[in-house]
Design a protein that fits this description.
Radius of gyration: 51 Å
Mean pLDDT: 75
Low-confidence stretches: 1-8, 33-196, 296-302
Structural class: alpha+beta
Distance between the termini: 118 Å
Strand content: 15-25%
Shape: elongated
Number of strands: 25
Helix content: 25-40%
Amino acid sequence: MNFTRWSARLPGTQRRTAARAAIRARARSSDSAETTDTTGTADTPSDTDTGNPDADRDPGGAGGSTDTGNSPVTGGSTAPENAGGEHATSDPADGAEGAAGAEGPDASLPDRSDPGMPYAGTDPEGARTVGAPREAAPDRRTDTVTAPTVPGARSRPAAEAAGREGPDGPATAYGRRGAADTGAAAGTVRAAQQPAHAIDSLPIHALLGQVPALAAVVHGAEHRIAFVNEAYVNAFGPRPLGAPAREAMPELVELGLLPLMDQVRRSGTPRTVKSRRVPKRRTETVPDRRGPAPAGTTPGRRRRTAHYYTFTCTPITTSGDSGVLIFAAEVTDQVEALERLRASERRQREAAVTLQRSLLPQELEQPDDLRVAATYLPGGTDAAVGGDWYDVITLGAGRTALVIGDVMGRGVRAAAVMGQLRTAVRAYARLDLPPHEVLQLLDGLAAEIDANQIATCVYAVHDPNEGCLAYASAGHVPILVRDPEGTVRVATEHTGPPLGTGGWLHTSGSLPLPPGATAVLYTDGLIERRDADIDEGVTALEQAFVGASGSPDIICDRLLRALGISEDHDDDVALLVCQHPERTGQDAELFHNATLDLLGGTEAAPRARAFASGVLASWRFPAELRDLGVLATSELVANSLQHGVPPMRLRLRRTDRRLIIEVTDGDEHLPRRRRAEPADESGRGISIVATIATSWGCRRTPGGGKSVWCEFVLPGC
């Protein structure tokens, strides 16, 4: 296939062929008296379609070639467009000289100032146009001919016009060289340099004037104004050139940029200040296109009353002076987006805090034998709310459960899990189980709530009859107990893994808590610091606890201050202080204990009734309360004698608010209330006790056996 004929079909080739045809037509019309068509002349033999690629190129650049596209070609310059694009170029100097000749006084030449008019190039002497017959042609191997250009080539980047390298070879002013042309560099000429873009000729001030960002240039020690662009004028108003910045640019003083500009000028190092607020010069109301305004409101919305800019001061140094370029990029959208994000985070935090506080006890139960105080402090504004909680549960018979825990994690999710665990603890506590059994149930529940959510917890029970604090811990920080002499004990034993891990059997331990002793339960936020080991925090709390005296409320405040807990603390803090007060004087007369061992057989019941009647009379209870107390004692003792095993004991206890009757025996079977049939001779004792008493209950004792009890609230309490 003839390569020349195939290349003529390409779109770029057809456009160039049409352009050259127009050039030749104008040339023939102006020189018809003295020129003839040189296509196929005798001195330049025509190339025929021989299949040889070299036949399509004239080594001298002046020979004619057969135009397979049925369009005339110019004689004397046959750059090989059939190889993928016209690549005939000339030396830059020759190209400039040729261009000058083309713009000479010859009226027959096209006007190069017309962007839509193609024009012909000239030879190096500028004496004739390309396409005119040669009188005496020089050596064609050394003659350089300027390639004709077309209007589309003028607007191309200079880099492309100069021959940018591409994947298919070096680029020319009209395109890229074909594979057949890349080896014939000796017989080609370079295209003339194309004019640069308009933006390349802009001076620096004009260039900054086109930038929508704020820009200003000052110079000298007084930072005299050398230039301000239109955006700066729109933001701050016009500024007189040559005036000192301190006097003519008060906005820079308000923004605190003058000291920064002095530093930049002296050090030669750019400096940046971020998100400076710039008030708008005026505020206008614009129509609101989002829909009609609600009734009773003013239509339209307000423009932004202030914008935010990030200012960059860059040093400018010349041979005789130095200055500063002030460039301000607007960041209002980013600042407003950040404010919206922070507002959303604040709302989420407030929701989590509200949920957290609503799930905590609104009012602590106050047992008869303990004084209790608790506090909860959420983390600072930069910290999400955690899952810390505490609770105080009265179990009956003077016993009290103390609970504190911490759900790992932050936010509403942690608070929700905490609420579920706290509710479950209260339900399990009503079963009056030992501490380790309560934690065992919580462990399974935590795994069901969320397998990936773990929690730590301490469950402790205070028994005033025993004068001790039974506890079990699931990965929580240890309890601290201070005895009446001021010695602090740390409960480091009987600690298992956190709740939710599963596969662990928890155990219970005991700490003495006699009258005058105080116990502290807390979460890790009180003692944990990022730069210190947690054991150091426990030691610091122990030292602070030694000197913290007073009521539980005062002890809470002193411990928080001693450990540096403030409103911007980085973690939640829950603190629970319980105190077993030592009562003296008239207060001591309101608390009494009386115990009777039930020995023998059936005679133990009347002996217990007589004991209860005498004790209640000595405590000066009203007659009605004495009768009810004696009846309850008789039923509980009879139930124990019938269904229990020795050892059996009757205990009467009074506080300032209630009377407690408790019977213990060695059998672990717990009684339950049931409805007796009319013909039954037994099964009514527990029902009678539940009817006449304020509350009743039963539990298993640590050493084996059970305890059945009932309470009567004293009149006026």
